[in-house]
Amino acid sequence: MAEPLLRVDGLSVAFKSGGRRTEAVKDLSYTLARGETLAIVGESGSGKSVSSLALLGLLPQPGGSLEAGSAWFDGQDLLALPEPALMRIRGDRITMIFQEPMTSLNPVLTIGRQLTEGLIEHKGMSQREAEARGIEMLDLVGLSEPASRLKQYPHQLSGGMRQRVMIAMAMASDPAILIADEPTTALDVTVQAQILDLMRALKANFEASIILITHDMGVVAEMADRVVVMYQGQKVEEGPVEAIFADPRQDYTQRLLAAVPRLGSLAHTDRPARFSAGATAATAPPSTSPPVRDDGAPLLAVERLSKRFPGRRTWTGREVGSVVAMDEVGFELMPGETLALVGESGSGKSTTGRAVLRLIEVDEGGIRLDGQDLRGLSARRLRSARREMQMIFQDPFASLNPRMSAGRLVAEPMVIHGLASGSELEDRIAELFRRVGLERDHARRYPHEFSGGQRQRLCIARALGVGPKLIVADEPTSALDVSVQAQVIDLMLELQEVFKLSYLFISHDMAVVERMSHRVAVMHRGRIVELGPRRAVLGDPRHAYTRALLAAVPVPDPTHPRGKLPPIDVEAMTRGRLTEVAPNHLVAAA
Fold first, then answer.
1. Cβ distance 48 to 74 under 8 Å?
2. Are strands 527-533 and 519-524 parallel, antiparallel or unpaired?
3. Is the residue at 497 inside a domain?
4. Is residue 276 part of a domain?
5. Strands of 334-481, DSSP E
6. Peptide bond connecting 82 to the previous residue in cis, omega within 30 degrees of 0
7. Helices (H), 262-356
8. What residues make up the domain containing 29?
9. Across the strands, what pairs with 90?
10. DSSP assignment of 173-221, as one string?
11. What confidence tens digit (pLDDT) does each residue in 465-511 have?
12. What's the pLDDT tens digit per position in 176-199?
């Protein structure tokens, strides 16, 4: 039997804060063979990310403590190496794609500076050689105009684009082991498919091994050779990917797989559907939300919104690199309705969500909420109106103040709008924590003490606190494992039924879109190219771009691989005025 590339034995990690000690990883052991992809899956907070951070000496400080264990790689115990020796391995032989790109990229350094510094340090490349390699990698991960991206800063890219930069940085040095912590979480399905194909090519061409940390069971089915299932810091099951999916032995693994939403499971209904209590999408009839009345006034009316981000000017005064983020975007949203915005990163869907809340100002167009013209409101009246509309942001760590406790973060909007104080405020905080799956004593923790999924749950609780009519949810479940994702979907749909909430739901997960939405709008390069009832758009897509999105969705079944994504000819796609092709089903004409 060949010696494994990496052998982890008895790894234990704890966190200490305020006199409390929490065991994050307990006696974890596994091996990684050369050329193998090992998926580590489990709920947020299960220890899957912490176990990999420990390998590279990146445990959060203060508080993170390596309690026991060894990790043998290339004849060396990584856990016993002094920092200078570990630095020579980290970023070269072993690289990592982190879960939250905005907090992993330095906001004051250009993309080019951050992409090339590792190549110069570890590979001894000249600046010119490193930049050429950087351009090559940005092109490989699907970023347009890669040479100009080197001069941009992280805030100038969308969330998906930033994640692609992180992947390019990790893969540029041809590592022996690539640790990918939720590498496709922020990506739409077409780019996700491209990235997964790229990671497979790296594995095949360079005999690289991959540790894949993810909650997306479709990605696990498509990528993994073996799977380690973790729960509350411990390994509860391990085996070949086919065996884990076909015959899971542990109750937790069974529940984890049962909570996976599957595209096409709601093809028989026009309405969103909750998971039945204790049941799954695959085995139980869902409880459907009531139909949305379309004979009244819309809660939100968006009319021909346009937004162009200016580029830079050359020495001759000519502007280059401008971006049209929205091009005459229009739609209506009824009380109690969910409209899903889908499309590639950079398509304008997040910009549209921010524009609706006037977090950015548009160049042209109208926004009306409950008949009120939002573009005409003063700053004082807009602040009051924002009680009616809240947002759940894509990157939870970047949207939470690191100096505030979780309890204060959730309380802040309610305090600002004068909704509660004293014991009533404390009770509301506790109830919100319970609803999103957090413990009451979590209120004393700070954002860095939570996992990525737990931080997103904090953002959801914060948005729900003021009882809004409209929530713009920008990838609200992308950082959540599937079991918590199912709970959050149930929660959002339950609140929608009770309070007639309207959601503008931005997501790249088409199975979640199917479960959450009444209607779907597909965006491509700043324009809506298809808009209609969810059942029609997903079941009978008429636009070539919509069909490409659906073809790229990973299937949570290792016996039915997706296959390589065919080339997408974006230049040939129609982007004209929307034309009705079926009742309420609109598609862009030529």
1. no
2. antiparallel
3. yes
4. no
5. 338-342, 364-369, 372-373, 389-392, 470-474
6. no
7. 349-356
8. 6-258
9. 94
10. T--SEEEEESTTTTS-HHHHHHHHHHHHHHHHHH--EEEEE-S-HHHHH
11. 888 999 999 988 876 777 777 877 887 888 888 788 999 999 888 88
12. 999 998 887 667 777 778 778 878
